Task: inverse folding
């Protein structure tokens, strides 16, 4: 009987000892993992910025103020067109670059056939200012909708006549 009691006590001590040595081994790894999570947050979709370079020498219409193209560049926006407008020359902001995906419900923004006239959406006929992308006419059935076109950041390299846009 006494022997059984001693064995129980021995097993208890052995379990406590094994548990505490396991904690001592794992704790540093656990806490350093926590540090890693704090220092390096997992990137979200919005942190991932991609870029695409356009050789403007292929688009002579963009050499003149008021020139515009709406073109698919393959990978960006899954092949949906990007709109590039020449709005000035030799300034810090010579271009406007817009996504052609309508901010309302994703319809396609089209360039007006009349050069320099506002862009419009083929889905619900909203209208956007040619240079700024400001919403001038809301969709047919939502008179309070005023979202502008999605403007993309860009960098222009005049010596190479190349434009890099970010998406
Ligand atoms: S999707 Fe463009 S106005 Fe509705």
Result:
């Amino acid at each position: 009987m006494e022997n059984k009691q001693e064995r129980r006590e021995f097993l208890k001590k052995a379990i406590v000892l094994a548990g505490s040595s396991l904690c001592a081994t794992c704790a540093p790894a656990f806490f350093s993992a926590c540090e890693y999570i704090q220092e390096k947050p997992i990137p979200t979709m919005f942190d991932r910025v991609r870029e695409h370079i356009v050789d403007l020498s292929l688009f002579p219409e963009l050499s003149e103020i008021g020139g515009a193209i709406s073109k698919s560049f393959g990978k960006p926006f899954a092949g949906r067109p990007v709109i590039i407008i020449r709005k000035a020359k030799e300034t810090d902001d010579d271009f406007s670059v817009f996504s052609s995906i309508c901010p309302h419900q994703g319809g396609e923004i089209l360039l007006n056939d009349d050069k320099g006239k506002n862009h419009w959406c083929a889905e619900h006929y909203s209208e956007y200012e040619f240079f700024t992308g400001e919403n001038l006419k809301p969709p047919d059935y939502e008179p309070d909708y005023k979202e502008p076109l999605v403007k993309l950041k860009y960098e222009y390299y005049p010596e190479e006549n190349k434009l890099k846009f970010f998406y």
Summary: The chain has two domains: 1-42, 47-166. The CA atoms of residues 153 and 166 lie 5 Å apart.
